[in-house]
Amino acid sequence: METPQQNRCGEHCSIIETAAKILSEYPLCDRCLGRVFAKKGIELSNEERGRAIKTLLAMKLYTDYTSEIIDAEYIGKIASNTGDPVTRLYRKITGREIFANPCHICLHRVSSDYIDEIARRVAVKLSELNASSFIIGVKLDSEVVKKELDVHVLTGLESSESLKNELKREIGKRVTQLTNIPPDFDKPDVVVIVDVNKDFDYSIQTQVNPILLKAIYFKRGRRISHVPWFTSNGSRKYPESIQDFIRDSIASLFDARDIKIHAAGREDVDARMLGSGRPLVIEVKEPGFRNVDLDLLNYILDDQFIKVSVIGAATRRDIESIKEGSRKRRKIYRVTVLTEKPVSEGDLEKLSSFFKERSVKQRTPMRILRRKKDRERIKRVHRIEVISVSSRVFEALIYCDGGLYVKELVHCDNGRTTPCFSEILGTPAYPLELDVLYVEKA
Predict the structure, then answer these.
(1) THUMP domain location, by residue (predicted)?
(2) Which of 325, 348, 378 is the last residue of a domain?
């Protein structure tokens, strides 16, 4: 029965035999050889591991040489692909000098100095970007990847580590040592890409991830669009937009390239957004500064006609959530309606009674057909409450599904919406003012 000591000896001998097999075909530096056996042993760098294997190999070669199992020519072949200490062994045995070939994978370019040089350049870039977290990515030339694969397949890839992975880890560790900035594998401020060519010259690119802020906005004025609205001749159709207001208010605080907003739907340009406000995610693109006080943001974003309340940090999933759910969230609208003929309290009670859990068919409104596909939607009006203002004016609170076109619910849109207020009242009705009072939370 094999003892544990014999088993360990067998594994160690297997490592040395595998190393000899590899080095008889490919020249490798200590680090690139160590990566082939990266999963063998702990608390060793790949460079230390490769050096140890080469030392053990030199010992075995000397033993086999003195036992006349191998000759000096074989040692010379291994030495040219191994370097020290096998080159010293060859010189001792033969009295002749032999020089090591460049590493098949990294050309002897990847060293602690090489990694340190890259890390220092990365540290400068992170400092310039005021980053508080980062992650390193490495892009290797395909020729380098193929060379590495040629070597690693000789071992079955069971114990090896890729050069790309080692560079990411070692550069990242060194950057943290230099800057005290921790890596963040989930939501880094900055993604650093080190692009390495076949000669191991490199370039560094940075991708500054945006800041995402969860917020709610209120629109207290009318004729304010959601995003900038331009006419065909390039002039602005409306003087202000929600996105303009947010960008102009806070972009300089973050030293940001731009600001983009993602909202749970949008109200008409002439409608106010009151009550509970509308959920929003603010995307701060390429910020040069990331730590802005929340209270300061909310103070700046409170204006006469627009108010934005920032709640805290958001994620990409939050953006997906508010966009996916915008048509599903129920809403409450307040609309002021003018009728062509006077309507009685009885007419208004009939209207209120009719629109209880009532399904409404709507084709795409005429006013937006130029930018949206013509199709039929079925939405539900859950209930309405009506208050008379005068014989021809009343206010209606409409509790309905998200995505219902409220103006068309009032005037029928030439029969494209049915049923509608005009149809039930028996007289043309026109929406004068529209406010959104409530948007259901996710």
Answers:
(1) 84-210
(2) 325
